[in-house]
Design a protein that fits this description.
123 residues, mainly alpha, Four Helix Bundle (Hemerythrin (Met), subunit A), 5 helices, globular
Length: 123
Amino acid sequence: MITGTDVRKVATFLSRFSGEASTRAQIGRLYYAAFIDARHMCQYQFEFTPTGGGEDHDLVRRCLRDQARDPVLSENLLKLRIMRNKADYRESLPHERQLLKESMALATKISEGISGHGGRSFM
């Protein structure tokens, strides 16, 4: 089973490369690592059953908000997903290094939030 730690290692590896493609990929991996950790927390602490589809992204955030009673953690995961979507889908990405920096800060907050709930973190 893949873990957030596994994906975080890929993001760290990508940081060795310069350029827009690497920056965009790092942002995507930061989100996916946070999502995996949040999904695992919801599965093991709140009996969440993933559908295996795209709706899991919203369902995990709802689990964080409603079952874990942590709207800040839920909102941070949403913000990081929005950043990932920008990195993946926008043709032009001005200030990509700033977006990466903000993504890293959010990923850290999410990791700390998951750890605060007794979950495993990827940072």
